[in-house]
Amino acid sequence: MSTLEDLADRVERLLLRHDELKRTNTLLEQQLATVVGERDNLRSRLAAARSRIDALIERLPVGDVDEHDRSGNHSQASGGGA
Predict the structure, then answer these.
(1) Sign of torsion, CA 46 48 51 52?
(2) Pick from 19, 25, 34, 55: CA 20 to 30 A from residue 76's CA?
């Protein structure tokens, strides 16, 4: 009979562990849903920011810039002379 009692104890422990794992899994699924929502929100905000930056870049004037101006030094023609 002791073997049957041992088996019953093991089954009971397994059932308890199963319930614990189900609860843990539910919590992990909720956390995952939250993180996925945050990720999607951040992706959307990033896309909007990129669009705004692209629009600002499009508004920048296009002109001939010599190598001196590209290095960060302003030429006299651009009003930043020495």
Answers:
(1) negative
(2) 55
Amino acid at 7: L
Q: What is the DSSP string of 7-20?
A: HHHHHHHHHHHHHH
All residue ranges of the chain with pLDDT < 50 are 78, 80-82
Q: What is the pLDDT of residues 46-63, one digit of tens each?
A: 999 999 999 999 999 987
Distance in angstroms (rounded) separating the CA atoms of residues 21 and 52: 46
Query: Is-above-0.70 flag for pTM?
Result: no
Contact 82, 74 (CB under 8 A): no
What is the rounded distance in angstroms from the CA atom of residue 77 to the CA atom of residue 69? 10
Tokens 């019953």 correspond to what residue?
8
Cα torsion 60, 61, 62, 68: sign: negative
